[in-house]
Amino acid sequence: GEGGAGEVEVDLTDSGLAFSWPCSRLLEALGETSRKAELQAPRPCSPEELAAIARLVELHEIPEAKIWLSAGLSAFLYLYTSILGCRPGKVVVSSGLPMGAGLGSSAAFSVSLSGALLTAAGVVSAEGAVGGTEWQLLGKDHLELVNTWAFQGEKIIHGKPSGIDNAVSTFGSMIKFKKGELTNLKSGNPVKMLITDTRVGRNTKALVAGVSERASRHPDAMASVFHAVNTISEELSSIVELAATDEIAMTSKEEKLAELMEMNQGLLQCMGVSHASIETVLRSTLKYNLVSKLTGAGGGGCVLTLIPTLLSKLVLEKVTTELESHGFRCFKVEVGGQGLQIHQG
Q1: Which domain, by its residues, includes 23?
Q2: 208 within some domain
Q3: What is the pTM (predicted TM-score) of this model?
Q4: Which of 19, 37, 66, 304 has the smallest number of Cβ neighbours within 10 A?
Q5: Per-residue pLDDT of the chain (345 residues; tens, 9 = 90+)
Q6: DSSP alpha helices (H): ranges in 59-139?
Q7: Is 165 a catalytic residue?
Q8: What does the DSSP 8-state code read for residue 296?
Q9: Within this chain, do residues 130 and 254 fall inside the same structural domain, yes or no?
Q10: Residues in domain GHMP kinase N-terminal (predicted)?
Q11: To the nearest 5 percent, what fractions of the chain are helix, strand and coil?
Q12: Domain edge (last residue) among 118, 144, 171
């Protein structure tokens, strides 16, 4: 029932924390939030609403070490109450992504949450299973709607997000992003990567400011660097779409990707966004003839290492062990997989 007894609870299993709010308290603070007409066209969270949500989050004692959770909880309350209203319910969140490492965990959170809540509200529905599993996919229009809601959640967490992270989480595969325009790339073969989280905190705003200062000191040189980065990205996106049908074609494709990644990393060093911890990862992977580049804003954060299809498990274990000995965390991933999937029951 709307705003009657009961409570809204969110259980963040990975951090071992759970939070709940009585429905009556939510209704009192936010009023009648869910309006059926707006489910198809979400409106941004108003400053007044955001302030009311922040006060609701502050009712809980969040440990100082996990203070970054408060933005995620604000996004949760906004999405939950906007889509389902102030009716009781419990949401359990578990994730295999490290938080705050620049890997888009906040977008994955916003997309999963929006997908689940819109399904519960009966606004979107799954169609077609994923090959022999109990997971189901959404149609394109429904994915678009989930993405629009998730973007509103991302705005609460990040202020001015580009919309790339939530789009990748929603639609899957790979995305080319240029001047605000997203193009879906059809990746013929998933690309295997090792992600190394250097666990060095990074400050995106300061790094970006540093790049533009360098650009104003050396306008011509930096313009050439930016032009080269653009050319490399364009070239990479066309290679990604090539379907390699046998091992020889696959190896040739991966060698081209590796060369472009290596060139890109050199240009990022020119921009001044590298960091000692990133250089350590580059040195360690180079010993095994593997190519790496920083990802995200740089200045610590994460590094991507291309894993060729034919690389032996032993070499991968060795390089992972060496990276972990420096106190880094490694994740083996495939780039270009499925987007949002729904599992019911």
Answers
A1: 7-171
A2: yes
A3: 0.83
A4: 37
A5: 444 579 999 999 888 889 999 999 999 998 876 566 588 888 888 899 999 999 999 999 888 778 778 899 999 999 999 999 989 999 999 988 877 667 788 999 999 999 999 999 999 998 877 777 889 999 999 999 999 999 999 999 888 888 889 999 999 988 898 887 888 888 778 789 999 988 877 666 777 788 889 999 999 999 999 999 999 999 999 999 988 889 999 999 999 999 999 999 999 999 998 888 899 999 999 999 999 999 875 666 789 999 999 999 999 999 999 999 999 999 999 888 889 999 986
A6: 69-84, 105-120
A7: yes
A8: T
A9: no
A10: 85-172
A11: 50, 15, 35
A12: 171
Please name the residues in contact with 7: beta carbons below 8 A apart, sequence gap of 6 or more.
20, 21, 22, 23, 88
Which residue in the list 11, 14, 141, 165 is annotated as catalytic? 165
Tokens linked to 303: 């590094």
> What's the length of the chain?
345
**Tokens 């990040």 appear where?**
158
User: How many distinct structural domains can be found in the chain?
Assistant: 2
244 exposed, middle or buried (CB, 10 Å; 0-12, 13-18, 19+)? Answer: middle
CB 174, CB 193: distance < 8 Å = no
Task: Give yes or no for a contact between 34 and 82, defined as CB atoms under 8 angstroms apart.
Answer: yes
Please name the amino acid found at residue 271.
M
Collect contacts of 104-107 with beta carbons under 8 A, ≥24 apart.
104/165, 104/168, 104/169, 106/71, 106/72, 106/75, 106/154, 106/157, 106/158, 106/165, 107/150, 107/154, 107/161, 107/165, 107/166, 107/168, 107/169
